[in-house]
Amino acid sequence: MSEIKKITAPLSENVVLSLKAGDHVQIDGTVYTARDMAHKKLCRAIDDGTFPPLDLTGTIIYFCGPSPALPGRVIGSAGPTTSSRMDSFSPKLIEYGLKAMIGKGYRDQSVVDALKKYGAVHLSTIGGAGALLSKFITAAEVFAYPELGTEAIHKLQVVDFPAIVAYDAYGNSVYNT
User: Fold this and answer.
1) Which run of H or E residues covers position 133?
2) How far apart are CA 40 and CA 22, in angstroms?
3) Is 39 a catalytic residue?
4) Burial code of 60-79, b = ≥16 C-beta within 10 A, e = fewer?
5) pLDDT bracket for residue 70 (50, 70, 90)
6) Does 174 map to a domain?
């Protein structure tokens, strides 16, 4: 296994460009959740010329709809959603400053092209391990679009959140090697 790289969100361009496909990372800092409906609303805000509720600059979005927290817990299960479900939205968000996404599975060529053009990465984490991944989340709150329920955007504070660089900013992928 390769050395684990510690990264802190929000991400700087230098950090993003230092990451290579296959790198193991641990993330500290602020990460936002967003699934299909939240992605659609973020893109609509950009298209309408209004501001999305979060500044995308350097942001990491986790494709996750966390379950409600059990008593004494910060959050419920928080596993990744299939990344390809966000493929039609991701290039626009990357253009507007999104630097990383966390999900599981393959990405469309349009996403890979946007990663290369704007200097961003796609990270993958363990599917089916939402209860385990929730242990790396130290705080959680609904941040935007509460009307979407579990698909609302949540603001998470994470410590040592594990992921692998699945697609880097140079067009390389763990899926091609």
Assistant:
1) helix 130-133
2) 29
3) yes
4) bbbbbbbeeeeeeebbbbbb
5) confident
6) no
Residues 6 or more apart from 144 whose CB is under 8 A from it?
38, 53, 54, 152, 153
pLDDT digits (tens, 9 = 90+) for 157-168: 999 999 999 999
d(CA 166, CA 105): 9
Residue 176 lies in a domain: no
Four-point Cα dihedral 34, 97, 85, 69, nearest 10: -20
Return all residues near 133 (Cβ < 8 A) that are at least 6 apart: 77, 78, 79, 80, 125, 126, 161, 162
Q: Give the pLDDT confidence of 101-153 residue by residue, as tens digits.
A: 999 999 999 999 999 999 999 999 987 788 889 999 999 999 999 999 989 99
Confidence at residue 1, expressed as pLDDT on a 0 to 100 scale: 54
Report yes or no on 177 lying in a domain. Answer: no
Length of the chain: 177
Residue span of the structural domain in which 153 resides: 4-169
Report the CATH number that the domain containing residue 74 is assigned in CATH: 3.20.130.10
The total of structural domains in the chain comes to 1
Q: Which amino acid would we find at residue 51?
A: F
How many angstroms separate the CA atoms of 119 and 1, rounded? 25
Please check whether residue 88 lies inside any domain of the structure. yes
